[in-house]
């Protein structure tokens, strides 16, 4: 499970840096593509996508892809709000959506709903399925058991 968590964290972190670089390009038309994030984002994405993986395995037999994506999007908003709320308590929350029209306490913004929805479909269909097929955790266990 550790390697999947790690890959999910890398994926989320990379997507956030890419998204902020694209947003900066759209705003400033600069080709520097200077995306940014926080180390907290790695842990937030890793844990969230691992939990989405668990949801996917349970929901797949019962719900369509669309319904699963709606559930994932609701989860993402709950997770972003919760982690942001905790981080804000320690003056460590790296994001603030207060300037957005449809924000909740500056911790989430409804303006990103379509991005989270589409991102959750990509996470399920590409990232989670591919990562699970790699079987990295089993390979690590085999390597460790041979070396002990």
One letter per element, helices H and strands E, the order comes to HHHEEHH
Output the radius of gyration: 17 Å
Separation of termini?
Answer: 20 Å
Helix content: over 70%
DSSP E strands, number = 2
Family: Belongs to the TMEM229 family.
Membrane topology: Multi-pass membrane protein
InterPro entries: CmpB_TMEM229
Transmembrane segments: 39-57, 69-90, 102-123
What's this entry about, in short?
InterPro entries: CmpB_TMEM229 (IPR010540). This is T229B protein. This protein is an all-alpha fold.
Outline the secondary-structure elements:
Layout: H1 2-28, H2 39-59, H3 65-89, E1 103-104, E2 108-109, H4 113-134, H5 136-147
Antiparallel strand pairs: 1-2
Helix pairs in contact: 1-2, 1-4, 2-3, 2-4, 3-4
InterPro entries: CmpB_TMEM229 (IPR010540)
Organism: Atractosteus spatula
Membrane topology: Multi-pass membrane protein
């Amino acid at each position: 499970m550790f390697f999947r968590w790690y890959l999910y964290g890398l994926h989320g972190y990379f997507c956030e840096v890419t998204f902020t670089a694209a947003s900066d390009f759209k705003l400033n038309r600069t080709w520097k593509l200077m995306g940014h994030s926080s180390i907290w984002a790695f842990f937030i994405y890793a844990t969230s996508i691992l939990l989405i993986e668990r949801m996917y395995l349970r929901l797949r037999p019962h719900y369509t892809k669309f319904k699963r994506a709606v559930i994932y999007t609701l989860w993402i908003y709950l997770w972003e709000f919760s982690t942001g709320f905790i981080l804000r308590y320690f003056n460590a929350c790296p994001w603030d959506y207060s300037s957005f029209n449809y924000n909740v306490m500056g911790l989430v913004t409804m303006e990103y709903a379509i991005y989270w929805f589409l991102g959750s479909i990509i996470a399920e269909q590409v990232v989670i399925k591919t990562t699970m097929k790699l079987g990295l955790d089993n390979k690590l266990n085999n390597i460790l058991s041979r070396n002990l």
